[in-house]
Request: fold
Amino acid sequence: MAVALLAGLSGNAIAAMPCGAPALGALAGVERSQWEEFDAQGKSLVRERGTLQVAGLQALGRCGAVDWSAQWTRSQGQRDYDGITSTQAPLQTQSQLRAQALSIAAWLPVSGGWAVGSQLGYRQIRRDIASAGNALGYPERFDYLQAALGVRYQAALGEQVRLSASGWLGGGPGGHVKVDLPRADPVTLPLGSSRLLALSLELDGSASAQPGWSWRAGVLYRREQTGAGDAQALTRNGVTVGAALQPRFVQRHLGATAVLAYRF
Reply:
């Protein structure tokens, strides 16, 4: 449904509308990141918490009544890892995170300051768990797609400042995670389907559509839940030595960002 709505708001429909000059901007921020994995009975297996630095690029514009945006972000940092080993022994270590997100979105006004929107996104997460004692660490790379429907409300706080509150609800099909285990051949594990909730509150200093500089600052919250994938065989030098699956995991991110943009 979200894909269909976005296709309707973009593509030929937007191409036929008169479009204003876009604004291009750079984004910087910080976010508090949490990651938790669960077994089939709902017991917590791993908890991670840490702070990530965020940077990115944005493009914003309007075609007819439709607002559109495209955004790329990169987050990186370290999280404290509190979990268990394969032998059920407690394990405390750290994980290094590098995540990238690419999204496109469109908003269509419906009444007053209200608008409905649709979004498509791709996320990649590189997670490198550090060794601790006899427990050997290993790197992982998650890749998945998501789509969401949203609602937004905007209100002017003055001639040049606008308040914007938005929410997104959606999800996506199962992606995959590539794992390089220390005592097995590299393996690709499937992920279950995902669900997401995202909320944001922003101040926008670009109410004018005239060329020049503008700014935007806000806070955002994002929660994602990804189901467990199916088990896959593990091999060592081509010989089966066991099986593994990616457990269900939940991500929570609370952050603040600022954008400086220029409209041409």
The chain has one domain: 2-263. The chain has two helices and 14 strands. The chain has a mean pLDDT of 93. The first strand starts at residue 23 and ends at 38.
